[in-house]
Amino acid sequence: MNPNSRNQIWSLWEFLVTPGKQVARPFEVVRHNCARFGRREFGSASQMNVEYRASGQWVIKVRSERHPVHDPRFVEIMRERWEQFLTLGFGVGTTVKLHAKLEAGSRDDGTPADQLIIIPPIQLGV
Fold first, then answer.
1. Domain that holds residue 48
2. Residue 50: enclosing H or E segment and its boundaries?
3. 65 lies in a domain?
4. Which CATH number is 62's domain given?
5. Which helix (H) or strand (E) holds 85?
6. What pLDDT was estimated at residue 42?
């Protein structure tokens, strides 16, 4: 076991964004702007995936290290920051739903910390 793993907290933040204005935005521009903002908010120890759905919604998933996802005040602050950023980009009326969950680390409830193991996808015989 890695001795540093007992101090690590890994969380998954999922933002479901419904733009206020249905204006076509280039995927690369949205991805680039989200990456810049995400790096500022979450730091470099993060992984981001941006996806556009046919329904017109954007899904932004961020896996991050060391952020207190079990603190409701912190989660609300992050939701407000992202909502403000996304409203500037997508226009007035943009709605942001946030689902944040702890993937690994201490839950601060006395139970042992969970471990996060990420393995590459396995391809079965073709």
1. 8-104
2. strand 46-52
3. yes
4. 3.30.70.260
5. helix 72-90
6. 84
